[in-house]
Specification:
The mean pLDDT is 82. 19% of the residues are buried. This protein has helices spanning 10-13, 33-36, and strands at 16-26, 29-30, 39-44, 47-52, 55-65, 71-79, 86-94, 97-102, 121-127. Helices cover 6% and strands 52% of the residues. The two termini are 27 Å apart. With 129 residues, it is mainly beta. It has one domain (10-127): Uncharacterised protein PF14869 family, DUF4488 (Lipocalin), CATH 2.40.128.490.
Length: 129
């Protein structure tokens, strides 16, 4: 590891609350801005919570593996409409930004690149200061 290189795990790097910073899409189609206003995701250790305002939409646990290329995340849903299912995905972290691409809960394999498309949920997040 080079001098000054960040030794934090990806789980530690994402800790905190994140806002949607730009596009979010499902099946390759951008979601309307009005549907996303107030959407936040909070990470605390291996736990995550997705909220719209004060309403919890989904919560669960996740395992992040930054050693893979691209980095992989497995998110197990413990609260919300997909409780008991696991979403497989990939992510890329840079500073206070994150690009995430997830396969819906019933799919058995995760995405392999950031191209998006049918059956995928994608989004760009910015960490709140």
């Amino acid at each position: 590891m080079a001098v000054g290189e960040d030794k934090k795990s990806d789980t530690d790097k994402v800790k905190g609350t994140w806002d949607r910073s730009s596009r979010h899409s499902v099946d390759g189609k951008d979601l309307p801005e009005a549907d996303l206003k107030g959407l936040t995701i909070t990470f605390d250790g291996e736990k995550f919570t997705v909220k719209m305002g004060d309403q919890v939409l989904q919560a669960g646990t996740q395992k992040m593996d930054g050693s893979k290329k691209p980095a992989e995340v497995d998110s197990k849903v413990t609260e919300g409409p997909h409780t008991g299912n696991t979403m497989l995905g990939i992510y890329e972290l840079s500073d206070d930004n994150a690009e995430v691409l997830l396969r819906p809960p019933m799919e058995r394999s995760g995405p392999v690149d950031f191209k998006g498309g049918a059956g995928l949920m994608s989004g760009t997040l910015k960490k709140k200061k």
